[in-house]
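TA notes. Do not distribute before section.
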Amino acid sequence: MKLYRPLYGVEGVEFRMHRSTLHNSLYRADDEWLVNVQVYGISAPYTPVLHLRKVAGAELVSTYTQSFEKVWTEAVPIERKA
């Protein structure tokens, strides 16, 4: 979380904590996603990142969006520290 601290005051950027067990790191901007997939035995900075965009007829972005929204609604906003 220290690495994200400079973004805490940026308009439109929000952070929340959750207790869900997730197997990917998800980063969302509008209808585009960056998905850092976990690979057993490999540190996250060295694993693939998928850049996903919403495309007519495709369901992958919708699936990630639905999953994200379920976790996000139950997550607790992180207090900004001065």
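Switch to the second chain here.
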Amino acid sequence: MRFPIDGVRFGHWTDVDARTGCTVVLFPTGTVASGEVRGGAPATREFDLLAPERTVARLDALVLTGGSAFGLAAADGVVAHLERAGTGFPTGAGPVPIVVALSLFDLLEGDGSVRPGPDQGRAAAEAASGSRAGEVAVGRVGAGTGATIGTWRGREHALPGGFGVASARRGDLVVAAAFAVNAAGDLDDGAMSTAIADGVFDSWPVDGGPFEARGDTTIGLVVTNAVADKVDCLLLAQSAHDGLARSLFPPHTRSDGDAVVAAATGVIQTSGGDLDALRAMTVAVVERAVRTAC
């Protein structure tokens, strides 16, 4: 499918046999970003620089990757790719690419000894720079290749996760979401939370088992073409987590490292009231992206 925000480019590297992969997102110059983590077990690189009080506001690339903490090495290949292109934060020693990486745990799927690394990150970045970079594949590709959902009650309950994309438009304003969904929770149809609230749910993990001995994580991106600063982007990231909570149950467990980056490409000027509209759109597109990923 065609990603609806100009200048935002996607590239996947996928190993179907090992059931892992990574996804690289390249942003146009001037993109501002922030983010928030709500899961208990995040694996990230350079995420702290997204905080509104940090000096650098730009984001050159985002890496979404399998391989747990090992997979964060994929960012090295993306940094090298961007350095060769002369992209990055200007310094006296030359531009330094600003690359944030988020990783999910897929080591129990396929061959856990195969993890995305610098070569794989570079390959995904090159794909994102290619002629079809405005297109984005969804499903069991890239960071979503080895993703699963529904494992909070045990791996025998696991269903395929994946990589999903959704967008919404209000006049000239666009908000889009792209998520690799590898959640401990299930897609939420309301039935399970109702059963727990009514006291009739009878499938709790024995002695907390799967809650304590596993890894999961839903990671992703929200991006808008609006003009926004880092504080605005932080608010969008917070709304994105609301979208996760609407689509997954239970969300944000201790074994999930749920993390979201929110970015603004700064093309469309907005008024103060538009931020709340953008936040509402964010909740909606994240929920849909998660549901379409699985």
